[in-house]
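Field reference: sequence -> structure
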Amino acid sequence: MNLQFVADGLLIGAMIGLGAIGVTLTYSILRFANFAHGEFISWGAYGALALTGAIGFLVGQKIEPLGPFSFGWNVLLAGLLAMAMTGLLAIALDWLLFRRLRNRGNVIVMVMASFGASMALRSLLEFAFSSRPAYFSRSIQFGIPFGFGIRVTPDQLAMLALTVVLVVVMHLVMTRTFIGRAMRAVSENPALAAVVGIDVDRVIRATWLIGGALACAAGIMAGITVQVRPYMGFELLLPLFSAAILGGIGSVPGAVIGGLIVGLGESAAVQIVGAEFRAAIAFLLLIGVLLVRPTGLFGMRD
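Structure field:
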């Protein structure tokens, strides 16, 4: 029995889950669907790639890979810097565009503006880096056999481990820190949260920062295990929203689990019925769950 599609689905689902965390937080706190979120994935991946090259240039020597992985310490440092920069990009986009529209209270206009921002960011990225695929490394890795036809490369194992670490950190932030509790309070009732002394603007900035940073991490995962392209975030956009809705809007664990379900569903679809039906199978899973539980797996009724 060949279960390679399970490993592939978990890796795809981990990327979708990380990106979906930002989608679910943005929707629950800011009350609108941000269709520019996928571009944070692309910008984060290209930012990390550019910083990796810049660090190598400054060091002035070839940086050896870490153990069995295809990347060196420069990719790790560049990834951290890119996550911070992508978070700041998200904050800047909110300050330049969404904040002004949010004050007018028109959600539909904000959604349409996010479409425009998405196209603008994607076009800028394509203009700066061209549409040709780019790679963090072109070295060939051999998969480690795990039985049942499953083979996983060291890079893929590292990316799955990164996902676990980031999800645990996010859980601790949301449950053990003041800003996490403030974000949950604002998602429940922004007006009441402001009355009790919570700085709503600070919570909004934290939401954009976290969402952008996690989207960048998802982009780096895709870049290391596959390739970097300007349209990579756009192609992941519908799975991101599917995962966020499936897991329950506002739930960080739900977004991750929803991402894993979508990833496994798409991978199984490729194995069973063909690649052209992968998106359809994922949305059939979404519809099936919502028919049973309209609020999603971990969503709460208002």
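Note: The first strand starts at residue 144 and ends at 147.
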